[in-house]
Design brief:
By secondary structure, this protein is of the alpha+beta class. The protein folds into three domains: about 100 residues, no CATH class; about 100 residues, no CATH class; about 100 residues, Rubrerythrin, domain 2, CATH 2.20.28.10. It is about 20% helix and about 15% strand. It is built from six helices and 17 strands. Strands 3-2-4-5 form a four-stranded antiparallel β-sheet. It is elongated and about 90 Å long. GO terms for molecular function: ubiquitin protein ligase activity; zinc ion binding.
């Protein structure tokens, strides 16, 4: 392994506009082994070739942008001795003139940004996480190798920072923000709340207290499963929502349980000897409609209150251009992982 974080020079080189491309600032071009052409970076290659992607670790040659000499990958030009970058990793073939606090993680198998001292590699999740998350996040085996549940793009080598909600499922920070802006607060994979929903639950409590149910439905109870605490409970039905008796969350769904009767009361039709089978079918339709309407009511109420967006969970990104500012801002919080996949 050979990682060179700063070539021999007293001061970092000044970045010139002509150095590199929109993705990276560097003093060399990569020679793609797949098509034998020189490109400023792997992203430029992939944008120019829709039918295949470059394998950066197979790159063996570079071209100096100053003297145009084609040569074996190295930290500086063999002819004019121009350093190819202020940070050079010959494993990932990453050359960068800009300081993003890059470091190579052997466990991830790629370079990350944000500073080695600020991150540690979680063996279970198989990704670099902020030190603040050590022993405080929910681990899921190889979760970093899943795709984002919103955009379905890769998470482990993504150039976009990833967010870790309380359930532990990774999601791109931009996708997380988009869900929040559109009023979706549950994890797309498991349905658990992705942020503190206490203000919404309190407002729903107030709505329920001021909205009494008709007499015939006041004793109707349902079995629900809480998507936040994963416990079942028997609760009274209300059109606003079905509240978990254990944690107070309204993020619930109706479940079938033979030990949990749906209703503790009787209707007039039942007492008058009506057709029970037909009535049970009607009640089934009613309670299903109830659950769906309760969820819709919760979504409607959420648009009227401010739910605090949790920006404390971001992972370290693979080295990219535009992510460094977002990464730096997230390090002061606790939970975002900037996962920028470097060149």
């Amino acid at each position: 392994m050979e990682v060179v974080e700063s070539p021999d020079q007293s001061e970092p080189m000044e970045v010139q506009p002509q150095n590199g491309c929109k993705h990276y600032k560097r003093n060399c071009k990569l020679v793609a082994p797949c098509c034998n052409k020189a490109y400023p970076c792997r992203f430029c290659h992939d944008e120019d070739n829709e039918n295949h992607a470059i394998n950066r670790k197979l790159v063996k040659e570079v071209v100096c942008i100053q003297c145009d000499t084609r040569q074996i990958t190295a930290t500086q030009c063999a002819k004019c001795e121009l350093p190819f970058g202020n940070y050079v990793c010959l494993i990932c073939n990453l050359f960068d003139l800009e300081d993003r606090k890059q470091f190579h993680c052997e466990d991830c198998g790629m370079c990350r940004v944000g500073g080695r001292d600020n991150y540690y590699h979680c063996k279970t999740c198989d990704i670099c996480l902020p030190i603040k998350l050590k022993n405080s996040h929910k681990c899921i085996e190889k979760v970093a190798h899943d795709n984002c549940a919103v955009c379905l793009e890769d998470l482990h080598s993504s150039r976009i920072p990833s967010h870790i909600p309380p359930c532990g499922h990774l999601i791109h920070t931009s996708c997380y923000d988009q869900l929040h802006r559109n009023g979706h607060y549950a994890c797309p994979l498991c349905g658990a709340s992705m942020m503190d929903m206490t203000p919404l639950w309190q407002q729903m409590d107030e709505e329920i207290a001021s909205t009494p149910m008709p007499e015939e439905y006041r004793t109707v109870s349902l079995c629900v499963l809480c998507k936040d605490c994963h416990k079942e409970s028997k609760v009274l039905y209300h059109i606003i929502g079905l509240k978990c008796e254990h944690c107070g969350s309204y993020n619930t769904c109706r479940v079938k349980d033979p030990n949990c009767p749906e209703s503790t009361g009787s209707t007039e039709d039942e007492s008058s000897g009506g057709d029970l089978s037909e009535e049970e079918d009607d009640d089934e339709t009613l309670t299903l409609t109830i659950t769906n309407q309760a969820q819709a009511n919760g979504a409607s109420l959420s648009s009227n209150i401010e739910i605090a967006l949790d920006s404390s969970n971001v992972l370290p990104v693979d080295n990219i251009g535009s992510s460094s500012a977002e990464l730096n801002s997230s390090q002061d919080d606790a939970n975002d992982t900037d996962n920028d996949d470097v060149d």
